[in-house]
Amino acid sequence: MKTLLIIDVQNDFMPGGSLPVAEGDTIVPVINAMQPKFDLVVATQDWHPQDHISFASNHEGKSVFEEIELHGKSQTLWPDHCVQGTKGAEFHPDLDTTQWEAIFRKGTDKAIDSYSGFYDNGYLKSTGLAGYLREKGVSQLYLCGLAADICVYFSTYDAFKEGFACFFVEDASQALDQEVYKELRKEMEYLGIQMISSKDIQ
Ligand code: VGL
Ligand code: ZN
């Protein structure tokens, strides 16, 4: 069961959105072109309540992109983004969703952030994605989306730890911070995650 997991290809992460990833929109045609090569396509959607803890606006006197300590861990404070039910939380309008079998929402608990599509950042709660993929008989998991250095990275890391053979589709992903991505890319290669181009997919 060759499976594609599309991470957070949502309006707020596009140029013009509230937490834009440079050239985030360029991955949409790449993702659309490769979807038919997969037996199963699943997506994640960042889906925050307005009072979410990761929003700087919910912390008096704090500014966006500031780091704070939360439950003993570092948390970046983001601009308000992907608020449940808003246009910014919707998938990019040109993204073909017709083949998708399921959408896993994350970041729904106001008290904890969730970068990975599998677990929240404290590994307290599961989204059920790993169990779903296992039940479907998934062995090879291809990942792509936004942002390459945040949610796609953390999802890939968790998928790898869950025992899936992971393929990170680089031309179907874009990073928020290129320098951070360069380091994470090395780590993923070291772990045995395959860094590939969509052209390599049969
Ligand atoms: C993301 C920051 C905050 C992402 C989500 O999808 O990469 N980044 N929430
Ligand atoms: Zn978020």
Automatic annotation (TrEMBL):
Molecular function terms in GO for this entry? metal ion binding; nicotinamidase activity
This protein's pathway: Cofactor biosynthesis; nicotinate biosynthesis; nicotinate from nicotinamide: step 1/1
Annotated signal sequence is none
Q: What is its EC number?
A: 3.5.1.19
Q: Which Pfam families does this one have?
A: Isochorismatase
Top EC class, one word: hydrolase
- Give the protein family: Belongs to the isochorismatase family.
Record's protein name? Nicotinamidase
